[in-house]
Amino acid sequence: MTAAARRVAVVGGGWAGLAAAVELAGAGIEVTLYEMAAQLGGRARRVDAGGLALDNGQHILIGAYGATLQTMRRVGVDVDTALLRTPLRLVGPNGHGLAMPPGRPAPAFVRAVWGHRGWRRRDRLALLGAAAGWALRGFTCADDLSVAQLCRTLPPRVRVELIDPLCVAALNTPADAASAAVFLRVLRDALFSGPGSADLLLPRRSLSDLLPEPAARWLENAGAGMYLGRRVERIEAAEPGWRVDGDPCDAVVLATTAAEAARLAAPIDAAWAARAAALRHEPIVTVYARGDGAPLPTPMLTLPADPADDRDPAQFVFDLAALCGVDARLAFVASGAAAWVARGTEATVAATVEQARRQLGIAVEPLRCFTEKRATFACVPGLLRPAATIAPGLIAAGDYVEGPYPATLEGAVRSGISAAQAAQKRFRDAKSWPGVRTWT
After folding, report:
1. Is residue 437 in some structural domain?
2. 386 and 274, same structural domain?
3. Are residues 262 and 408 in the same domain?
4. CB 55 within 8 A of CB 47
5. Is 30 helix (H, G, I), strand (E, B) or coil?
6. Domain contains 73
7. Cα angle, residue 411 at apex, residues 133 and 378 outer, rounded to 5°
8. Both 385 and 412 in a single domain?
9. pLDDT value at position 3?
10. pLDDT score recorded for residue 436
């Protein structure tokens, strides 16, 4: 193979790796993808569990996820049918909560706050005043500030009913430990990225149907090579390129988990590997259950929390019967769930069943509990994340890589696309690639 036909190895077949592979293959670059699991998708995929096809966690998107939506469309997904688009609603079982009307996000947010039926006038004014201040400061703040510190002057009811669930949904980190700077960046993009940017996009299909499987078909048609169930053991420099388990390539996109990337990068850049390995993680627990047939008022509800009472695991519940057409199935999601992981699966499931009875007034039969112990990195103030470039031609991709976003699907996809573009830029740099060579 001559240098005219560039070859890139993508190690990792989650959403970051798939986005990188699609971007590279679309540019005419030969792609070989390695995935250690038996299927693609990473932490956002379908799992066959005891005869049930369930996602390994319940994810949502928002309208501001431009890179994710564009990649889905590129591989042939009809996002208008695959996702239910609704204005942002963080509403509880009693019907109270933030319910944004359609339209431009910023004025819609103001109308939603002012129309909140469960808050007093001074609660609404306090939140609108704080939001105006954040906007005037460009949605920026000191890096060492937590979300709880940022919102300390807000009334307790506003913090408990809006800020806390919004923070744990966006950052998967409790407000007292979460980065205010990243939280404000998410708010900025949701409220000021144009019409529809704050909309909720709820999956109507399995997560595997949203990107992993369509991307696999697209890559196969593009001539990409894919190895599933293959764990890469070694990446090494082979000037002027690289070798992945002995296979030659011009560049490598390392799109594994942070821990796996640290293992592979350690012989190349020990400092980068140490930073990746040092990231703390937050778990997410999803309890799937069959309800008694009563539909929820909306496809997604926020479940009320009492700061003085830790008996309720889930912050959100999704009506999968309404979303996906499966019979009376619900998904209860507990984000930032370290305390419940410590209590164990049996205690978490039992508490979720009781929470459904007390807060929703329904009896549920638990079907399966998924615990992702390392679901996301802990998005804490002042966090130093690993850089995208490990070495010339070795580029990291993943939601944990240095960037402005928390650990979300959009963060992963953006990182994958950026890694692919960095590889292409290297190819265009004639000084880095003198002459023409042939692989042997």
Report:
1. no
2. yes
3. yes
4. yes
5. strand
6. no
7. 75
8. yes
9. 43
10. 38
261 and 150 both lie in a single domain: no
Three-state secondary-structure class, residue 279: coil
State whether 239 and 330 are in the same domain. Answer: no
Q: Please say whether the beta carbons of 388 and 397 come within 8 A.
A: yes
- The reply to whether 308 and 246 lie within a common domain is no
Residue 340 near residue 373 (C-beta atoms within 8 A): no
What's the total number of domains in the chain?
A: 3
Tokens 């708010």, residue located: 187
Residue 328 CB: number of other CB atoms within 10 A?
Answer: 17
| Structure tokens belonging to residue 258 | 């942070």
The pLDDT score that the predictor gives to residue 232 is 98
Q: Which residues contact 133 (CB under 8 A, 6 or more apart)?
A: none
Question: Does an H or E element contain 419, and which?
Answer: helix 409-428
Of the residues 138, 156, 191, the one at which a domain ends? 191
Domain that includes residue 352, residue range: 281-377
| DSSP annotation string for 184-205 | HHHHHHHHSSSTTTT-EEEESS
What pLDDT shows up at residue 433? 42
The alpha carbon of residue 439 and the mean position of all alpha carbons in its chain are separated, in whole angstroms, by 38
**Mind listing the pLDDT tens digit for each residue in 260-282?**
999 999 999 999 999 999 999 99
What contacts 158, CB < 8 A, 6 or more positions away? 119, 123, 126, 127, 151
> How many CB atoms are located within 10 Å of the residue 300 CB?
22
Residue 82 has what pLDDT? 97
Which helix (H) or strand (E) element contains residue 395? strand 394-396
Q: Can you tell me whether residue 380 is helix, strand or coil?
A: coil
Full-model pTM = 0.94
Does 68 fall in a domain? no
Q: How crowded is residue 85: how many other Cβ atoms within 10 Å of its Cβ?
A: 14
Q: Which of 377, 394, 418 is a domain's end point?
A: 377
Q: Is the peptide bond before 434 cis (omega within 30 degrees of 0)?
A: no
Strand residue runs (E) in 45-169 = 46-49, 52-55, 61-62, 83-86, 89-91, 97-99
CB neighbourhood size of 306 (10 A)? 9
Positions of the chain with pLDDT under 50: 1-3, 430-440
Using the structure block, give the residue that is written with the tokens 């030659």.
Answer: 248
pLDDT of residue 52: 82
Q: Are 175 and 37 in contact (CB under 8 A)?
A: no
Q: Are residues 146 and 232 in the same domain?
A: no
User: Considering the domain boundaries, does residue 287 fall inside one?
Assistant: yes
Residues 317, 242: one domain?
A: no
pLDDT at position 302: 96
